Amino acid sequence: xxxxxxxxxxxxxxxxxxxxxxxxxxxxxxxxxxxxxxxxxxxxxxxxxxxxxxxxxxxxxxxxxxxxxxxxxxxxxxxxxxxxxxxxxxxxxxxxxxxxxxxxxxxxxxxxxxxxxxxxxxxxxxxxxxxxxxxxxxxxxxxxxxxxxxxxxxxxxxxxxxxxxxxxxxxxxxxxxxxxxxxxxxxxxxxxxxxxxxxxxxxxxxxxxxxxxxxxxxxxxxxxxxxxxxxxxxxxxxxxxxxxxxxxxxxxxxxxxxxxxxxxxxxxxx
Length: 270
Known about the structure:
This protein is an alpha/beta fold. The protein is 33% helix and 25% strand.
C-alpha cells in the first residue's frame, strides 16, 4: 500500500503502475489494486476505464486483466460451436451493407459464413472468398457469381492461405471486404499466430473500396505474433454487444464506425 506521507501520484503515474502490476499478475481485482495504490475503488474504476479506452487493459467483472497471447488459431470445428447467437447478429448487420450487383470479399470464418442466408434475396452478386465452406454455401444462390481463390489449403480452417490466394485477389476490384479475426485489440490492431494469413487480408483491404472487420467481442483483447493491420485501417467494425463502451469509444476516436450487434444494434460513428 502507498505510504500516506508520499506525494499522491498523478493519474498518468497511477495508471502506469496499474499496467505494470497487471503485466506481472495478468489479472487483478479492484480490491487488490485499491490496496496496492492506496486510492478509492472509484478512482481505480476510472483508471481502468481510461486504460481500457486506450486499449491497454481489459475490464472484467470485479477487476481488470491484460491482453493475452493467442499462440494457435482455433480450428473451424472449435469455432463452429461458439457464440452462435452473437455470430448470427453480427452476420445480419454485415449483410445489410451489401446491395444488388456488388462484388464482395468474404474472408474465411464461421461468422462471415453466417451472412449467407441474409444475402439470398440479393441479385447479381459476385462473391469472392478463400473459404471453402463459404464457396460451397453459395452454390445454390440463384444469381451469384462465385470466385474461389486458389492457394494452399489450411485443412483445420477449410480455407486457402498464402501468396497464391493473395495474387488472385489482387487481380480483382472489390466493393466491400468483410474480414474476420480471432485476435484484435486497440493497441495492436488485428493480429494472427499464422503468418500465412497476413498477405491475403492485407490484399483484401488494398483492393476494396470499403473494408469491414466482423469479429466477436470474445476475441477482443487477445493478440497473435503477426500484425496484419490497425483498426484504423478499416472503415467499420461489426462486433457484438459484449464489447464495452470504453473500448467502443476508443475505436470511435480512431475515426472508425462501430456496430455493436444484438437485439438492438448500437452504432458509434467516428
